[in-house]
Amino acid sequence: MQQQRFELKYVIKEGVALAVRDFVNGYLEIDEYGATLPNFSYGVHSLYLDSDDLRLYQNTINGDKNRHKLRLRFYDNRAEAPIFFEIKRRMNSNITKQRGAVRRDAVDWLLAGQLPEPSHLVSRDPRQLVALQNFCERMQEICAKPKVHVAYLREAWISPRDNSVRLTLDREVKCQPEPVARLNTHVDDPVIVFGKEVILELKFTDRFPDWFKELVRVFSLTQCAAAKYVEGVSRLGVNRVNRTFVVNERETDFQEFKEFTGSGRAGDLIRKPAS
């Protein structure tokens, strides 16, 4: 379990984001993953799971103070790259995350309801097995399934001493329905969730740093809600997100799936575990 932390979000223009970058450079260091990339940004991909009545989405819309999300996070398409099964919990402004890094070839088995095993995990750390068990338990409680793929570019600034303070700038947030776990970074026909605006997040584990206060004052920032999954579903429309495809060995309406997702790869319809 990640240490409890706070997250404050702001939606800002690109010009303000560049000025924030100059400001934060005196306090934090650029994350190593983005240091050599254009605009200091790396791709982040999340496959969100939810029930057919979108219970987790509705919990956020209704403003439930104690809520969580289930997602599979990944960063590239390499076969050896892990898939992170994550539970993100929120209690008011307090955030905790629990996640386990899973082998890509184990994902379909776990989503089909198989009990988690140590062999599914990349690490032998028992805490990651507990995280995976908790994820699968919550997934099965509400019969959660893949619903939406959210993708964006992240510029992350971190403390050189510890993980107590972190600042991120998320750009080009995209969202598309994802009824199966393709786990591919290619986004076929997405909606752009926040337009050209940038999502600024201030993250801290203890007190609100004084220089965060100064940053908010200097740029006249106004805190707001900016939940990528929830905003994405709202823009797509609940009916589009919940549209399902019946796929079996005898009949496959591939043309409908192709028109819906823009995908021309029949193998993307369903991925069966190897026997």
Q: Please report the distance between the alpha carbons of the first and last residues.
A: 34 Å
Low-confidence stretches: 246-275
CATH topology: mRNA Triphosphatase Cet1, Chain A
- Indicate the mean pLDDT: 88
Number of domains: 1
Beta-strand percent range: 25-35%
Radius of gyration: 19 Å
CATH architecture: Alpha-Beta Barrel
Helix content: 25-40%
Brief synopsis:
With 275 residues, this protein is of the alpha+beta class. The chain has eight helices and ten strands.
In words, what does this structure look like?
This protein has 275 residues and is of the alpha+beta class. It has one domain (5-268): Alpha-Beta Barrel (mRNA Triphosphatase Cet1, Chain A). Helix content is 25%, strand content 30%. The protein has eight helices and ten strands. It has helices at 14-24, 55-61, 107-111, 126-141, 210-218, 228-236, 238-242, 254-261, and strands at residues 5-12, 29-30, 41-50, 66-74, 83-91, 94-102, 145-158, 165-177, 191-192, 198-204. The chain has an eight-stranded antiparallel β-barrel, surrounded by four helices. It is globular, with a radius of gyration of 19 Å. 28% of the residues are buried. Residues 246-275 have low confidence and may be disordered.
Helices, strands, pairings?
Layout: E1 5-12, H1 14-24, E2 29-30, E3 41-50, H2 55-61, E4 66-74, E5 83-91, E6 94-102, H3 107-111, H4 126-141, E7 145-158, E8 165-177, E9 191-192, E10 198-204, H5 210-218, H6 228-236, H7 238-242, H8 254-261
Antiparallel strand pairs: 1-6, 1-10, 2-7, 3-4, 3-7, 4-5, 5-6, 7-8, 8-9, 8-10
